[in-house]
Amino acid sequence: MISKRMEKMLIEDMDSLVKPANEVAVVGTSNTLDHALLLMTTNKYSVVPVIDEKSKIKGLISMPVIIEAIMDIEDVRFDKLGEIKVEEIMDTDFPVVTMDFELEDILRMLVHTAFISVVDDDEVLIGIITRQEILTGTNRIVHNFERVYDVKDREAERV
């Protein structure tokens, strides 16, 4: 379990940990891959959430998945980008949490993914928690820990 003091240093404000959905680049399930590719390259993202018309999270779309979908044995078929819908190839196995998440679970999940989608009880996307935000908190701890706390070496005390 993460101590409350460490949690407070890592995350200054739990609400600010979640980037709101209206600030998150998303694509719709019915969008074609050319739209997804344009959105992702313009914003320099390698993966984005996929939502339906009711803003419910349905999956993730990533650059590798898009490229794999337009490759054949001999060539990359860029002409297929406008024919394939995001929902046909999106990844449907991805981490999702609700707002009552535990920070320890978030840290464990972010080892394997760049962000975690946060949803309400109806699976509507509320926002995302990014690895970048956690690393920002880690950077804050590394640089400020001894300014905030008196640190003693336990081994030196035993001698």
UniProtKB/TrEMBL annotation:
<dbReference type="InterPro" id="IPR048125">
    <property type="entry name" value="CBS_CbpB"/>
</dbReference>
<dbReference type="InterPro" id="IPR051257">
    <property type="entry name" value="Diverse_CBS-Domain"/>
</dbReference>
<dbReference type="InterPro" id="IPR000644">
    <property type="entry name" value="CBS_dom"/>
</dbReference>
<protein>
    <submittedName>
        <fullName>CBS domain-containing protein</fullName>
    </submittedName>
</protein>
<dbReference type="InterPro" id="IPR046342">
    <property type="entry name" value="CBS_dom_sf"/>
</dbReference>
<keyword id="KW-0129">CBS domain</keyword>
<dbReference type="Pfam" id="PF00571">
    <property type="entry name" value="CBS"/>
</dbReference>
<feature type="domain" description="CBS">
    <location>
        <begin position="18"/>
        <end position="76"/>
    </location>
</feature>
